Amino acid sequence: MASLKDLRDRIASVRSTQKITQAMKMVAASKLRRAQEAAEAARPYAERMEKVMRALGDSVSTQDTASPLLVGNGKDDTYLVIVATSERGLCGGFNSNIVRAAKRRIDQLLADGKEVKILCIGKKGRAQLNRFYPGRILDTIDMSGIRQLGFVDAADIAQRVRVMFDEGVFDVAVLFYARFQSALTQIPTEQQLIPVPLAEHGGSAEDASDAGGGAIYEYEPDEEAILDDLLPRNVSVQVYKALLENAASEQGARMTAMDSATRNAGDLIDNLTIVYNRTRQAVITKELIEIISGAEAL
Amino acid sequence: MAERFSFELVSPERLLMDVEAAHVVVPGTEGEFGVLPGHAPFMSTLRPGLIQVFEDENQAPKTLFLKGGFAEVNADGLVVLAEDSIDPETVGLAALDQDIRNAEEDLTAARDALETARAEATLAWMRPLRDIIARGI
Questions:
Q1: In angstroms, what separates the C-alpha of A37 from chain B's closest C-alpha?
Q2: ipTM of the complex as predicted
């Protein structure tokens, strides 16, 4: 049986933990709002880019001279799996969920006899993946120095990936991140970066003509040159979008995790308080019995 | 009152400008082109250069430096997708020269394709910006 002092100390310690988780929850909530605003602000650019890409992709992708970024380099032996996770923990199952989704895909690729290389964004995913696939991780991109994610950060990552693609390090690149749905739900998502998935272009002839509003465009220099210019940008934009979603998801997951931690701490305090009160009463009763039995003995 | 059309300047991070303009001069890859109301549907890539936005034909234009990007003219107006824009008046020539020298050093000292690509990308927009500022805006 713990002494009264022990119980008091435990209650105090749980209470201070609760204060910390409460504070973290509020910080996550305000960061989440900022991350959501950033994701929203980035939407117009991505939407317009997609519209144009679709309109152009249909007309150019059938040609032999189309950029390898669009049609691939003719092989799919080596996959580059880019896993975007967070730099900090204490965000519930956020990182594990992304890693699990990536792991499922990697195992499947390995079973198919493909070569898999991994590029980590954020150190939390690296720690987990390194346990399963030692030696496959090419590099980890450290995002801890970045306070507010900017497009340049994403563009730099995209450039790295493009350079690796040009050097023939890999044939296909897929990106794993968590799509933000709500503070409660984040969906681990797989997205193909290189080559640009044709499914988005193909079968959307209607959208394509929609994009131009039915008008016939004049192109300068020409469609192909424009597409060649846009494709690398598109990779950057996709990475940027994914990282923004990921940032929002991370804060959402942290907020939820900290909320339930705060609630758990509250439950724990209630239980401990009951035990504390019982113990206190037991001690008083014991003392009374001692006094009475002492008096009776006289 | 002259006719206007909607002009949007969009960067990946946010909507930079959303105004009614009377006339916009855009730095296209194959030469500058002016957009007036009722322009034919048109798409062009941009080179690093100045974009001039005349909200009113008689007023001085708002001038911004774009690092390159993409322009689309459709029935609704003009949309420019630009990665980044810089107000050329805020840039000091000496600081820019120093940056260019740094980038050139990076280029010669580059150990791999990634570092080369990075330095080249920086120089690709810094040099035209320097020319423009040196010439006077």
A1: 10
A2: 0.81
